[in-house]
Amino acid sequence: MTPEKVKEVGKICIPGMRLSLLNKEYISGPGTYELKGYIYATLAGVLKMEEDDKTKATIISVESPRTPSVLPKTGDVVTAKVTVVNSRLVQCIILCVGPSVLVRPYKGILKKEDIKSTDKDRIDPYKCFRPGDVILARVLPMTEIHWYHLSTAENELGVVIATAAGSPQGVSMVPISWSEMQCPKTLVKEPRKVARVIPENINQELFPVHNNPEEKEKETK
Amino acid sequence: MPLDFRRFNGPEDSVSYTRFTQDFLKSYDELHNELINKSNLRKDGRALDEARSMFARTDMISQAKGSAYVELKKTKVVCSVFDPREIPHQNEFSQLGQIFCEVKFAPFSCSRQRRPAAPDAEDKSLSVALRQALEPAVCRHLFPNYQIDVFVYIIEHDGACLAAAINAAGLALADAAVPMYDIITASSIAIIGDKMFVDPTEEEEHVAMISPDSENVNHGIITMSMLSELKQVSDFIQIGSMDTDCVIKAMDILEKECAKLIPNIQQVLVMNVVQNIEQQKKLEEEAKEREAALNAKLEEWKTLLNAG
Amino acid sequence: MAEIYKLIHPVKYFNDYISRNVRPDGRQFHEHRNIKLNVNSIKASEASGVVKCGNTTVICGIKLELATPKAEEPDSGFLVTNVELLPLCSSKFRPGPPSDYAQVVSNIVTDIVMNSECINLKDLCIVYDKLAWVLYCDIVCIDNDGGLIDACVMALISSLKTLTLPNVTYDPETEDIKVDITKRSPLKVNGLPVATSFAIFPFFEKSILLTDPSAYEEDMCGGNGANLIVCWNKGFLCGTQKFGGSTLSMEDEKQALKIAKQRTKLVEKLIETCIDNESK
């Protein structure tokens, strides 16, 4: 590889590289750590310097070309797939944290009372989720060792992709209200805790233009 | 030894044929004298304080998050790192994440005997040594209650395999984007009498581990790993018997050897970043192309639908 | 974004590609991956072969030992082949004793070699009822990206072909064994078995045959490894396995056999060229 190509990419950092002084002007961001008045890199990646609007300080961070090996944090919105539903709770596996895909799925748990913010006593998990549904949820503070507690008690959180019972794989239902979804093929209606998907959200990518060709193709036939 | 029912086993009384060759019966003195020739060079033409040149590369294994391959002439080591996962059978909350290391020799890696397929004591002790060396280098507070798997496989063993394993693991961890405090490098030295063999081969290690007939002769192997930017020693293993002066002298040499490896490792990591970024760009472009193609198709159908 | 789509809608993602007559890695349905072969790169073993089929990497090393032959077959030696699926080659394998899948792979490879009769075990006997060679062939997988058995068989055969046995003298009176490593004779290998894997993907009413599947394609077609393995040796079939997956029509099966035969020719040529280059 030629040196020109290396220059094109930007300033490359590797772990243990001293990046700058640590003071009011420079703050350590993701991918860095502080030690004895200096900021060092922890990842191999490209150096990013951004100015914070409030304090006017420069945040120094290192961006890795790969997904960093990190775990979901409290407050993150995650994409998860439901695996088990019972009368008290819903178990799922976490697939993505924000926009980054996890290589290894982590276990998540959604308690009955965390499903909706209203009508908490009358929630029936069976009427909100089914195994196989893809949901959006927020991570709650961690209390157990290997389970991430999740919550969908927000309008924007809940089921985004679901297949009706008996429909072929890959045909997802369309939301028709905040609590119901319908299959476009079999016209079966099923109850779900539906997420209100706002455009410009990452979830838009989950209903991509890709979906339509085959379905349309069948229709035209 | 109990029979391993999960593998195909050979006959129980089989012996390596090297047992019947003439070389097998050499005495200690013969072996010792063979190591260095008259012009003070080792068997492979190196001077005593000359290390083998290291070849390293990352991204060897497509299925792993991060991986590396390190070659010191005949010593070949491959390492892969996977994302954090749950610690099995753990029921206590721990602030720091753990590193699970497994070092294994290939059955055909050693020229002396065939390695058993099941892990033996040497595999286990190398695994522990590797874990201890890596723990201070990784920001373990970022993944509490979880463990990162580091698997090292020694394809061919020709001395200094622990040092090679640590170097490979350091590269693989950086490749997997596991946050680390510093680059980790390691080097080893074999001591036989008053001679110090930097980066020893398997033969030299073998002689260094035999106790000589005369007493009070220094012999043994030292492996040291360093975090060079932070000037910290992350692991130090000394096997054999030697006096303090000898150990101190060996540490000085090892520190220099570890520092010598840094530019090589830095270069590999920089190239790794550049390659990854380029690959990412390529993937994005491909995805865009696909999307454009699909969009075009969709438009076509739309017009068809409208017409019909 | 493609990554997320692949993770959340696996079936649809794959269908998208198949409906456009292309596979996710850009290959045609019947196109196999590039094969790289290197023999005798591991000097610590008697003979070795490193095979790369696309990303799949497999190393085979042979160790030689001496033993007394079995009482029931006093004129035969031993050929012990084991396949080791290391935890480092894929996140699916855990450290510890070999999994069921590893044992199945081991068994298939052994069956192929034994059925093809490419090694005559009688050649491995040195002295009747007293002394015979034991060939420990250990095949390890460094990177598992599908088509594992193809790579294992190729690595094994290419290392067997380069194996030379040292000269052994046995004194029947003193039972003294002497090995002279300077004099070596090559092992006789008859034929050259080559395996070809296929995955069978159910796509609407028909099923689609994918040659030399990657690990992702194997997963999509029902899980544990390839669905169909065809093995040719010198124009004869020496093992055909069909595991799970979708149903396969007669025509597809015929086509699979044909493709496997073509690929066998190519692989034979590759192994022979590689060994020729090495011995020069």
TrEMBL record, chain A:
Any one GO biological process: RNA processing
SUPFAM superfamilies associated with the record: Nucleic acid-binding proteins, Ribosomal L27 protein-like
Gene3D superfamilies noted in UniProt: 2.40.50.100, Nucleic acid-binding proteins
Cleaved signal peptide residues: none
A single Gene Ontology CC term: nucleolus
Keywords per UniProt: Cytoplasm, Exosome
Residue ranges constituting the Exosome complex component CSL4 C-terminal domain according to the UniProt record: 105-140
Location(s), subcellular: Nucleus, Nucleolus
Organism domain of life: Eukaryota
Cytoplasm among keywords: yes
InterPro entries cross-referenced by the UniProt entry: Csl4, EXOSC1_C, Exosome_cplx_N_dom, NA-bd_OB-fold
Domain (Exosome complex component N-terminal) ranges: 12-48
Major localization listed first in the record, in broad terms: nucleus
GO molecular function terms listed in the Swiss-Prot or TrEMBL record: RNA binding
Protein name, entry field: Exosome complex component CSL4
Lineage of the species this protein comes from: Eukaryota, Metazoa, Ecdysozoa, Arthropoda, Hexapoda
UniProtKB/TrEMBL annotation, chain B:
Name assigned to this protein: Uncharacterized protein
Gene3D superfamilies (alphabetical): GHMP Kinase, N-terminal domain
Family statement drawn from the similarity comment of this UniProt entry: Belongs to the RNase PH family.
UniProt keywords, alphabetically: Coiled coil, Cytoplasm, Exosome, Nucleus, RNA-binding, rRNA processing
Alphabetized GO MF terms: RNA binding
Pfam families referenced in this protein's UniProt entry, alphabetically: RNase_PH (PF01138), RNase_PH_C (PF03725)
InterPro entries: ExoRNase_PH_dom1 (IPR001247), ExoRNase_PH_dom2 (IPR015847), ExoRNase_PH_dom2_sf (IPR036345), PNPase/RNase_PH_dom_sf (IPR027408), Ribosomal_Su5_D2-typ_SF (IPR020568), RNase_PH (IPR050080)
Coiled-coil portions: 270-304
Localization in the cell: Cytoplasm; Nucleus
GO biological process: nuclear mRNA surveillance; poly(A)-dependent snoRNA 3'-end processing; rRNA catabolic process; rRNA processing; U4 snRNA 3'-end processing
Alphabetized SUPFAM superfamilies for the sequence: Ribonuclease PH domain 2-like (SSF55666), Ribosomal protein S5 domain 2-like (SSF54211)
Residue stretches making up the Exoribonuclease phosphorolytic domain: 50-179, 182-208
Keyword Zinc-finger carried by entry: no
Predominant location category: cytoplasm
Superkingdom of source: Eukaryota
GO cellular component: cytoplasmic exosome (RNase complex); nuclear exosome (RNase complex); nucleolus
From TrEMBL, chain C:
Coarse class of the protein's main subcellular location: cytoplasm
Compartmental location: Cytoplasm; Nucleus, Nucleolus
One annotated GO biological process: rRNA catabolic process
GO MF annotations in UniProt: mRNA 3'-UTR AU-rich region binding
Domain of life: Eukaryota
GO cellular component: cytoplasmic exosome (RNase complex); nuclear exosome (RNase complex); nucleolus
Keyword line: Cytoplasm, Exosome, Nucleus, RNA-binding, rRNA processing
A Pfam family recorded for this sequence: RNase_PH
Domain Exoribonuclease phosphorolytic: 31-166
InterPro entries: ExoRNase_PH_dom1, ExoRNase_PH_dom2_sf, Exosome_comp_Rrp42_subfam, PNPase/RNase_PH_dom_sf, Ribosomal_Su5_D2-typ_SF, Rrp43
Family, per entry: Belongs to the RNase PH family.
PANTHER family the record matches: EXOSOME COMPLEX COMPONENT RRP43, EXOSOME COMPLEX EXONUCLEASE RIBOSOMAL RNA PROCESSING PROTEIN
Name of the protein described by the UniProt record: Ribosomal RNA-processing protein 43
Organism of derivation: Parnassius mnemosyne (clouded apollo)
